[in-house]
Design a protein that fits this description.
Oligomer: single chain
Shape: globular
Largest sheet: none
């Protein structure tokens, strides 16, 4: 069965990101209910991040090598769902670690392959036809929020089994939704060998604009590391109530959805990826400079919506660039490399964020503004002006 238009992709992304929203905020708490120590929980989370960084590019390249993106995506989503269920019966630190790492490896390429499919599907339709990647990604962000809100009403602090079940169900639904998504035909008429794939990847990495895309996105995404790790702690120490903090975070997510659905596509169509990426970098300079020097709720409420630019707009700009730079048969590999760059930089900055925050407090956020300052000229001079 095929669903016309963007609805097939919306179904896929809603199930996939809904599964993330259900589980991502609660995995540490779930492991705590399995009598793991904080050190063991931290080890599992760090190991899972490392596995995702390694598995993402490898499985993405495998999908391109097999020229079967939908099958690999469905297999990974189904395996991740099965691993989630296995967590219910896993007892002890080592077994929980193994199962968590299996799920991390399976989940690693899912968003990259999904983006490879949707960006390539949207590419020939960006001039005139009603298909916009931003609609798909905005629906995903909305589904993530809905998943978090729904599961929050279904669980108790001592019983998080429903997190596991709903996560597994949505991942299986995502695997099934790949059947609705039309296949994207690659221009290669024959099966390619490993050496040819490696050669194509090297050719891709030799493109200055593609390398620049990875660097710019890694710098801007990585600039969120300090905020994600210590903003809530900083605001709480400043006496801001948790209900107000949740509103501030909701503002950021709402802005992300609005930029994905409405503002971002319009900006890209009008000004192109170069201007959009430069705006995102400039917004990051402004956002982190202000967040680092104030805890005023009124000011923070004005600044938090900039998340729509520092996250959603740069992602849309990069996806538009991908559509014009990357050949169809390397789509999953390119998306995996893109995810690896931002993931590696974010992981490194998160690792060191504790040291910088302990030493400089709010001043540590200025370092994040500097990262965006470095990204700004790279975006302006390194991104293409194409309106593809």
């Amino acid at each position: 069965m095929r669903v016309s238009g963007a609805f097939a992709y919306i179904a896929l992304y809603a199930a996939l990101y809904g599964a993330f929203g259900v589980a991502s905020p609660f995995w540490p708490k779930y492991f705590e209910t399995r009598t793991l120590t904080p050190e063991q929980i931290g080890f599992i989370l760090a190991a899972a991040l490392l596995v995702r960084l390694i598995a993402g590019p490898l499985i993405g390249t495998l999908a391109d090598f097999l020229q079967s993106l939908r099958l690999v995506l469905a297999s990974c989503a189904a395996l991740a769902g099965a691993a989630a269920v296995a967590l219910l019966w896993a007892n002890g630190f080592w077994l929980l670690l193994v199962v968590a790492l299996v799920q991390a490896a399976a989940l690693a390429p899912t968003t990259s392959i999904a983006d490879a499919l949707s960006v390539n599907a949207a590419k020939p339709q960006m001039k005139g036809r009603p298909f916009e990647y931003g609609w798909i990604r905005g629906s995903a962000s909305a589904a993530f929020v809905c998943g978090t809100l729904v599961i929050g009403q279904l669980i108790s602090p001592d019983d998080l089994t429903r997190v596991v079940w709903l996560n597994a169900v949505l991942l299986i639904v995502a695997a099934g939704a790949t059947a609705l998504v039309p296949a994207v035909a690659a221009p290669l008429a024959h099966h390619v060998g490993t050496s040819q794939v490696a050669g194509e990847v090297r050719k891709l990495l030799r493109q200055a604009r593609f390398r620049n895309l990875i660097v710019v996105s890694a710098l801007i995404y990585g600039s969120h590391a300090m905020h994600d790790a210590f903003a809530v702690i900083r605001w709480s120490h400043a006496g801001i109530d948790t209900s107000v903090i949740s509103i501030l975070w909701s503002e950021a997510v709402a802005a992300e959805v609005i930029v994905f659905l409405l503002i971002g596509p319009a900006l890209l169509d009008r000004f192109g990826p170069r201007v959009a990426a430069a705006i995102a970098a400039a917004a990051g300079i402004l956002r982190w400079s202000i967040v680092g020097v104030t805890n005023s709720v009124a000011v923070l409420a004005l600044v938090q919506p900039l998340h729509g630019l520092t996250f959603a707009l740069v992602h849309l700009a990069c996806m538009r660039m991908m559509g014009s730079l990357v050949p169809t048969h390397l789509a999953a590999t390119a998306q995996s490399l893109y995810a690896f760059g931002s993931g590696a930089v974010t992981a490194a900055l998160t690792l060191f964020s504790g040291f910088f925050y302990a030493r400089y407090g709010g001043g540590a956020f200025v370092g994040m503004a500097v990262l965006c300052g470095i990204a700004l000229p790279l975006a302006w001079f390194g991104f293409t002006d194409a309106r593809d």
